[in-house]
Each structure stands twice: as C-alpha cells, then as structure tokens.
Specification:
Blueprint (H helix, E strand, L loop, with lengths): L2 H16 L4 H22 L8 H4 L8 E5 L14 E10 L10 E5 L6 E5 L6 H11 L2 E11 L2 E9 L4
Antiparallel strand pairs: 1-6, 2-3, 2-5, 3-4, 5-6
Length: 164
C-alpha cells in the first residue's frame, strides 16, 4: 500500500471518530477510491527506462538470425514480465490466422508461459512464414525486446531463419 492511500485511511478513521456526520466519511471514502484508481492507472501506464545505451540494444544471437520489427503488442494485454529482453522465445508461422495468411507470431516461452506478444508486420512476413514452415516445421527460435515510451509500445526481434 503506498503512502497516500495509508494517509487517506488514517484521515478517514480520524474524521469518522471526530465528526461522525455522514458527509465527511463519504468524501474521504471517495478520495480513497480515487487514489486507488490513480495508483492502478500508474501501474498500467509504466514506462521502461534503460540506464545506458548498451541496455537499449538487442544483441544478435548469431549469423543465422535476422532482424525484424514486432507490431500489434497493444492488443496482447502485455504485463510487466512481457517487456524487456527475452532470449527464450519462439517465432511461429501461424497456419490458420484469419487476419493474415502469412502471420508470424512472437511467443514468450520462459516461465512455462506460451504467450503471444506480437507479430512480424505484414509485408515482411511472407517469405519468413514459408521458410519457417518448410525448414523448421512451423516454429523457430527467437529473441525479442519490447519497451514502452510515451504510451506507445515498440518491439524488435531476431528470428532464426538462417540469414534469409
């Protein structure tokens, strides 16, 4: 519980004891609800700040990986754990995606999760989709980085594609 919520709780108790009229505790309760809402909104609206330039780069895992942007993260209900650099991920050529016949999804697979975090953009995914199906039976290793700045989500990935 943060300090402002604790302070409002204390004020609510004191006001209830000192002036037990109905209006004062109601106002304090409304203020408490507002602070809870504000606190929750701040948690949902976090920004990833990197300490130096080295932290901003996603290192390429090897010659057989290629660089891709990631899109669609704003629709994935991402949590704090999904942000940052993840070296344990999969690029999956989705065979039955109703929006894109050549969709390549990026999945976070660490912590026992198998969470879709974004997609390779249309136009950049056709050759990659076909290659992943033909060469890797539909999925291959990837590493990605997702960050948030000024209420916008950005993402990049390296996908094992033998250097397409």
């Amino acid at each position: 519980m943060n300090n402002s919520v604790f302070l409002v709780l204390c004020v609510l108790v004191v006001l209830t004891i000192a002036a037990p009229s109905f209006l004062i505790p109601l106002i304090a309760l409304a203020l408490l609800a507002f602070l809870f809402y504000k606190n929750k909104k701040q948690e949902d609206n976090f920004t990833i700040n990197f300490s130096n330039d080295a932290d901003k780069r996603l290192p390429c895992p090897g010659e057989d990986y290629s660089y891709y942007e990631i899109v669609g993260m704003q629709y994935r209900n991402l949590k704090k754990i999904d942000f940052g650099i993840h070296n344990c991920a999969l690029a999956v050529a989705e065979r039955h995606n109703p929006y894109d016949a050549f969709a390549v999804g990026i999945y976070r697979i660490d912590n026992g999760d198998n969470k879709l975090v974004g997609y390779v953009p249309k136009g950049q995914n056709v050759e990659l989709h076909r290659y992943i199906i033909d060469r890797y039976n539909g999925q291959t290793m990837a590493t990605y980085k997702i960050w948030k700045r000024d209420d916008k989500i950005y993402g990049i990935a390296y996908i094992k594609d033998d250097g397409l």
